[in-house]
Design a protein that fits this description.
- It is a single chain.
- This protein has 3 domains: 148 residues, Nitrogenase molybdenum iron protein domain (Rossmann fold, 3-Layer(aba) Sandwich), CATH 3.40.50; 117 residues, Nitrogenase molybdenum iron protein domain (Rossmann fold, 3-Layer(aba) Sandwich), CATH 3.40.50; 124 residues, Rossmann fold, CATH 3.40.50.
- Helices cover 43% and strands 15% of the residues.
- The protein is built from 16 helices and 13 strands.
- Helix 1 crosses helix 7 and helix 7 runs parallel beside helix 10.
């Protein structure tokens, strides 16, 4: 059967988005800064912008969220200027809490301050604490691009230039849809091969339910500003997700001698075989027995779930880098993808082999809900599915998920996560088809 590929935004033909699945660039940037150790994420915009983002992540992760804002209004933006608001915000935040010792301030803009045109770059000259600025207007891009732009900004502004490399030093650049546990699992696999492994951004120690002193005041990511400064001597950099290509281009300018390896995702047997083979080739060693064990478990899961998934139709919505991984994994066991509805345009959408691929919202997606077996989407799809006559199932993925606990510990990556994902999908289908 020939596939029909549409990569044009239906939003272009509508005056607004109805039940949007898209989230803003500042939200992606805020999340990225939470993945930096002792970072003070500072949103340059109104209180409402920051409050919504804070509530959004608090409900999704069920954790206290480190996020501050410059409290700009339309009046103060014109009368006082953005520079003043940023400097005053930093002074007020640090003076009110003398125990707050940020190692870096991560300033990201919003539509209000971008429209005004605040010079956020030169503000850093007046800040004593290390400072990173990133332009993230919320009228462009989305959550995925905001995350990627922040990684690029951190590299551009803080990574030192060099021509030397450390042979066993490896950097992972993960896309925004990878949860804290997933980044941790990828790092652990690389470390099992003997790599000195870093990730940027690195949420592996953040938003994961660990109660510690000062939680929710500063970012608790596993990579520090001093680590970021030295990333240029990484011998190998691996990008996971097309969105992270802009970050690796910035890094290769710092040191053109490093080796760049790209993966669109890390879901399914074929992709993970290539990933593990790459690590084996660099280090010239065999993987540990547990890695082989999980590969066997995934193969068994593919056999066990084939009849349920292979006889089913799916609709997937979410960030582009997340969508392609789930699409290819489900197709590897015979699943039929009726539609992929993406938050924003990405070149990776051109590579998704599905009957319908486009940028849109849940109003566009609901047309396909009527004739599909399972929808993979955020929790906003739930109430729409309740309105359908057909008993269509829902697997919750992406942002936000306010219905379930433990989002930060959901693992869909590598052999292990792919196994869990297939079983979750198959069990959901079994409940629909066998029990109604």
């Amino acid at each position: 059967m020939e596939t029909k590929k549409i990569v044009l935004s239906k939003r272009e033909h509508k005056p607004l988005q109805v039940n949007p699945i898209k989230h803003s660039q500042p939200m992606g940037s805020a999340l990225a800064f939470m993945g930096i150790k002792n970072c003070l994420p500072l949103m340059h915009g109104s209180q409402g912008c920051a409050s919504y983002t804070k509530v959004f992540y608090t409900r999704h992760f069920n954790e206290p969220i480190a996020l501050y804002n410059t409290s700009v209004s339309d009046i103060t933006a014109i009368l006082d200027g953005g520079d003043y608001s940023i400097l005053m915000a930093i002074e007020n935040i640090t003076k009110k809490n003398t125990t707050l010792k940020p190692e870096i301030i991560g300033l990201h803009t919003t539509g209000l301050t971008e429209t005004k045109g605040d010079d956020v770059r030169n503000v850093g000259m007046h800040v004593e604490i290390p400072y990173c600025y990133v332009n993230t207007p919320d009228y462009e891009g989305g959550m995925e691009s905001g995350w990627a732009l922040t990684a690029k900004a951190l590299i551009d502004q803080h990574t030192k230039e060099t021509t030397e490399t450390k042979p066993n030093k490896l950097l992972i650049l993960p896309h925004v849809s990878m949860q804290p546990i997933e980044i941790e699992k990828v790092k652990e696999l690389c470390e099992s091969f003997g790599f000195e492994t870093y990730a940027l951004p690195d949420l592996s120690t953040s938003l994961d339910g660990y109660l510690s002193e000062g939680q929710g005041k500063l970012g608790t990511g596993a990579i520090s500003i001093s680590d970021i400064q030295e990333l240029g001597n990484s011998a190998t950099v691996i990008t996971i997700g097309t969105s992270m290509q802009i970050a690796v281009k910035a890094l290769l300018k710092k040191n053109p001698n490093m080796t760049h390896i790209h993966f669109n995702h890390l879901m399914g047997q074929d992709t993970n075989d290539n990933f593990v083979a790459t690590l084996m080739k660099i280090r010239q060693i065999e993987p540990k027995s547990l890695v082989k064990r999980w590969r066997g478990r995934l193969q068994d899961a593919m056999l066990d779930t084939h009849f349920l998934i292979g006889s089913s139709h799916f609709v997937i919505t979410g960030e582009p880098d997340m969508c392609i991984g789930m699409t290819e994994l489900l197709q590897s066991v015979g699943g039929t993808i009726d539609a992929v509805i993406s938050t924003t345009y990405s070149p990776i959408l051109e590579k998704i082999n599905a009957q319908n691929v486009f940028v849109g919202d849940l109003e566009d997606a609901v047309v396909y809900f009527e004739n599909t077996d399972l929808v993979i989407s955020n929790f906003h799809a739930e109430r729409l599915l309740h309105m359908q006559e057909r008993n269509t199932g829902l697997v919750l993925r992406g942002f936000p998920n306010y219905e379930e606990l433990g989002n930060q510990l959901k693992n869909d990556q590598l052999y292990e996560g792919s196994t869990y994902f297939l079983f979750e999908v198959a069990n959901k289908l079994r409940g629909i088809k066998h029990h109604g």
